[in-house]
Every structure is written in C-alpha cells, then in structure tokens.
Amino acid sequence: MSNTAVLNSANTTIFGNLVADTYENREEEKMTHKEYKGKRHFQINQKIHFGIQRKVVSNMTTEAWETIPHVTYIYEPDITDFIDEFKKLNESGKHKDKITLNTLLLKCFVEGIKADPILNSHIEFNKALVRGTVESYEDINISMPYLLPNGEMMTINLHNFENRNLDNMTDYIADIGRKVKNTNLNEVMYDVSLDNTLNALGKGEFIKSLGRLIGSKTGKHKVKNLSGDAKRAYYSIPEKDRLTKEDIEQGTVTISNIGSIYKGQRGALALLEIVPPQVFAIGIGGVQEKPGVYVDENGEKQIGIRKILPLCLAFDHRALDFGELVPFMERLDDIFANPQQIEKW
Fold first, then answer.
1. Residue 76 has pLDDT above 90, yes or no
2. Predicted local distance difference test score (pLDDT) of residue 116
3. Has residue 210 been placed in a domain?
4. Domain that holds residue 20
5. From CA 136, how far away is CA 133, in angstroms rounded?
6. Is-cis flag, bond preceding 277, omega within 30?
C-alpha cells in the first residue's frame, strides 16, 4: 500500500471516530436533557395562592405597565442643611408631637405639587380614537403604601393634604394607624375591588368584570370574606374607627417611601409604576451620605460628606413631558437650599 493510501485510510478512520464520538456525545446530551426535563425534581417549598391584597396589587401594576408609557428620572437633592433644620424643628418644642422625616417630606412634596399642579391629575385616553384629556385637581389626595402589622402592604389614601400643616398631617397619619388596628384587610379591599368591578361593568367591560368575579369567588383562589357573627361584629365597628373603601380608593398622586422600610439601603429606586389614571408618582429612597460639592459660609466651594436623598420621579408620557416636572423640582430645590421656611409649616 502506498504512503498516500495509508494516510487516506488513517484520515478516514480518525474522521469516522470523530463523527461517531460526536454523535454519541449528542445522543448522551439528548438523553441527559430528556431525563432532566422528565423528572421535574425541583422541591416545592410552599405554594401560595393570591389573596385579595395580592390580587389588587397584581391587577393594578399589570394595567399600569401594559397601558402607561413610563418615564422615570432620578433626582438626588442635597438635604444636609434641611436635615439640620429638621432636627432643630423637633428640638424647638413648637409642635405638640414629634414630626417625622416622612411627614416633613410629604409636606415638601405637597408644596412642590402646588407649584406644579399639572402633576396632580388623572388621564383619560382612548387609544383607538387617539383622544385624551388630562384633568387636574385642587385636592391633593396622596396614595401612599402603608406597612401593616402583619407585614402586608396597603395603599392608603391621605385625603386633602393641600392645606394641612405639619400638626394636621401628623394627627391624620396617627389616626390612620389607629384605624388600621381595627381593620380587616380582606373586607376593605374586597369592597374596593367589588366597587371597581361594578364600575367596569358600567363601562361595558363585561368580560373583564366576569373574569374578576369568577377569579374571586370560585375554586382555590376564592377570596375568603367574613360571615355570620364575625361579619356582624366587624361591621358593628363605627366607620370612624376603621378603614373603609374611601380610605384606600384612588388618589391623585402616589408617593412610595421605600426608605422607611430599609433605612440602611445604598441604592436608588429606578422604576416606579404609576397607578392609573394618575400621571405622576414619587419614590423615596433612604437618605445616604455621599461626597459632594457645597458652598461654605465664606461662599467658597468645598467637597465634603453630604446627605443625599435619592428620589424617583415617574410620569405618564401621554400626559406630561419632562419640562412639566421642572417647577416641582425648582420648588424642592428652594426648600432644601433654604430650609428655614419649614418653621412656618
């Protein structure tokens, strides 16, 4: 046999072995893959069906992201001097109860919204006809997530905050805390959900309404309401002593304070859903110390450790453009740069 023939024979053998090995490896991979898919051996830790609170939140947030073109902006004001003034405010004894930073920030945001009233609006938009209206309001009703004693969240509607001073706000929030203790979450949220379903039915959204009713009243996902003596005992509590659907109905703007849940956080809220038909939402992060430039008492620029408040400002681009956020931020810039004005609040 010639050298060429030997070489060709060797090459054929090597090539054949490679093909065979490759085929066998692929078959082994297929078997392994089939075996893995067939076993489904993930161990389930627990399986939780949505309760009424999760149903309401999931429905609202899904609608928000499906229908609203969100724009978010990270605004990070330096609140070092503002924090110093806040401490002096509580030390002064001018207020009957301690003013929390959360309450003071709510007042700041209300002042910002009053300077920029288009943010305090609802939108109606018909995609098919490309028709829309934006309706702004005098009343500033703040939808604010509230952490309940059992760890669940409930969005509370803080009514008529446009003209409240710090003492009024403090009393109002304290009263919400008192009512929460007497409130059955399932009952009040079911009332709101049923009201929303009936409103949808009134608008001709029959399929949507039917789906909600089936989802809440049948099978494993059925919402468990009070009945019999328990129901009569609960509804015998005066409405002034418990939350009602009016306390958690739709507000005009949403303010979510994640900074109060975990004060040691070092991040910033980058996305925040807007609750339809609202057009604006504010996400508050935790106050953080960062290096920053500031002007000292001699008018000189210095670099030092500053207290920064990360805020996420989200708006509905159908209703607003970025320029319409400017008056809000300018008002906040003024408050944080000249914090002595909070003494008059």
1. yes
2. 97
3. no
4. 1-31
5. 10
6. yes
pLDDT digits (tens, 9 = 90+) for 80-94: 999 999 999 999 988
**Has residue 253 been placed in a domain?**
yes
* pLDDT tens figures, 208-259: 667 766 766 677 777 778 889 999 999 999 999 999 988 988 899 999 998 7
The residues, any chain, with a CB within 8 Å of residue 77's CB and separated by 6 or more, are 308, 309, 311, 332, 333, 336
Residue 96 in any domain: the answer is yes
The total of structural domains in the chain comes to 2
Residue partners of 255: CB distance under 8 A and separation at least 6: 106, 109, 142, 143, 144, 281, 282, 284
Q: Which residues pair with 135 in a beta bridge?
A: 122
Q: Is residue 271 part of a domain?
A: yes
Comparing C-alpha atoms, which of 249, 255, 286 is closest to residue 119? Answer: 255
Handedness of CA 89, 326, 78, 302 (dihedral sign): negative
Distance CA 281, CA 315 (A): 7
User: In the beta sheet, which residues pair with residue 294?
Assistant: 302
CA–CA gap between residue 138 and residue 114 (Å, rounded)? 9
Q: Quote the CA–CA distance of 143 and 252 in Å, as a whole number.
A: 7
Assess whether pLDDT exceeds 60 at residue 57.
Answer: yes
Q: What is this structure's pTM?
A: 0.81
What is the 3-state composition of the chain as percent helix, strand, coil, each rounded to the nearest 5?
A: 50, 20, 30
pLDDT tens digits, 27-53: 555 544 455 555 567 788 888 888 777
Strand 280-284 to 311-316 pairing = antiparallel
